[in-house]
Amino acid sequence: MTMSKIEGFTSLSSLERRSAGKYYLFILVNVFLGSIITGTAFQNLNALLHESASEVPVTIGVSIPMKATFFITYIMVDGWAGIAAEILRIKPLIVFHLKNAFLVKTEKDREQAMDPGSLGYATAEPRIQLYFLLGLVYSVITPFFLPFIVIFFGLSYLVFRHQIINVYNQEYESGAAFWPDVQRRVITAMVIAQLLLLGLISTMNAANSTPVLLALPVLTIWFHIYCKHRFEPAFVKFPLQDAMVKDTLERATEPNFNLKTYLQDAYIHPVFRKHGCDLPLAVADEENILVPTKRNSRMNTPGESKRGSDREDTEN
């Protein structure tokens, strides 16, 4: 997040998207590629030093399925245990009791101590993408790997659905701005899985089928380019239909509003404006409506607190 702030991003959604991209590259290189390459090098160090260069791809191709046991253990320790920790929330519970014991003096302090925060997309989403990658890579190479992935995604769906609806606060509505990044990472995982499958098959007796499988990454990349041109503009540009609705509402509420004069200093700090320019009602009344959830925090609810209302009732 600090690196993204240094780059100049200010909004929370853009900061989390950029941070998620950096974190995904880190775990892709460090966890996935690093484990495969270094594990293969150390396990077959003697063979790599004494065999010819033409036999190195064969050794690496044979060693890739052997790393499935490591990633199965990784999913059980990091994935399954992470889901259990998510539903238990032991760390926030300990932090709350510490704050409640030493920092809470008023009802507002108690509300702040009980605030669950929001779901950390910058770290949660790249980890999900890593498990997508592992499932795609080993679905053909080591099918025994799939039940562990299926159990993880099943538990993740149940737990995170409950947490998002009933526990976490929603800090912003991004308008599905994360989806293009998610789709691009899924396509990248598919291409990596297909290339590793090609490398593994080329080391076996089925090397004649390798040229046929070359069409897989080509078609996958073509599909990504098609989706990018067909659907991505809806995520990065304001829909024309919604723009027409806002223009119609603005003309109906403020028929004499001069848009050209308003835009001259609309993006200047109010202190530096030469003259005041009131916002039209259609612009001033806009609200960023969040997706409703079952959890309602009193911190975000306008009005008096429950304790204040009880005190007024007593006085009356």
From TrEMBL:
TM spans (from-to): 21-42, 130-160, 186-204, 210-227
GO cellular component: DNA-directed RNA polymerase complex; plasma membrane
GO molecular function, one term: calcium-activated cation channel activity
Domain CSC1/OSCA1-like 7TM region residues, every copy: 2-200
Pfam hit, one: RSN1_7TM
Comp. bias (Basic and acidic residues): 304-316
Alphabetic keyword roster: DNA-directed RNA polymerase, Membrane, Transcription, Transmembrane, Transmembrane helix
Region feature (Disordered): 292-316
Coiled-coil stretches noted in the UniProt entry, renumbered to this chain: none
The protein, known as: DNA-directed RNA polymerase III subunit RPC2
Source organism of the structure: Dendrobium catenatum
Taxonomic lineage of the native organism: Eukaryota, Viridiplantae, Streptophyta, Embryophyta, Tracheophyta
